[in-house]
Amino acid sequence: MVLSADVADPDQMQHAMEVVQHRWGGVTGVLHLAGITGESAMNLISDISTSEFERQFRPKMKGCESSKQQLRRWRRVSVFFSPLRPPS
Question: For the whole prediction, is pTM greater than 0.85?
Answer without folding.
Answer: no
